[in-house]
Write a structure and sequence with these properties.
Length: about 120
């Protein structure tokens, strides 16, 4: 029962962390000044100066481990011998979560943004 409650809580939390929420948060920065942006986000990882715009980019990357599931075992008896055979289960695996967020600034104010990656969530 505790496992079911924990799973429900995890699913509810995951539903709250969506890309749409992240994009809505980024949209709130439109009109803000560069100083405000850098104070909130910290120094950018890269800056590109175009003819009419300035692009500030932040990169976030994390290594994550997804544990596997154990196999199930079937035991059978044949005569005076007992055989136990595993089946199913999955190995664990390592994966990378990334989010690259770039803000476009014109005359020192945020005019747009772009988010790329599988971890752009809030």
């Amino acid at each position: 029962m505790k496992a079911l409650i924990g799973l429900c809580a995890l699913l509810l939390l995951a539903a709250c962390t969506t890309r749409a929420n992240y994009e809505a948060m980024l949209g709130q920065w439109v009109g803000a000044g560069e100083r405000e942006l850098v104070q909130a986000w910290g120094p950018p990882d890269s800056v590109y100066e175009g003819q009419d715009a300035r692009y500030l980019t932040w990169n976030e990357q994390h290594q994550n481990y997804m544990p596997g599931t154990p196999p199930r075992y079937v035991t059978r008896v044949e005569g005076d011998r007992v055989y136990t055979v595993p089946f199913g289960g999955t190995p664990g695996h390592l994966f990378t979560s990334r989010c690259k967020t770039t803000f476009t600034l014109v005359d020192g104010q945020v005019t747009g943004w772009r988010a790329e990656g599988n971890a752009c969530r809030r």
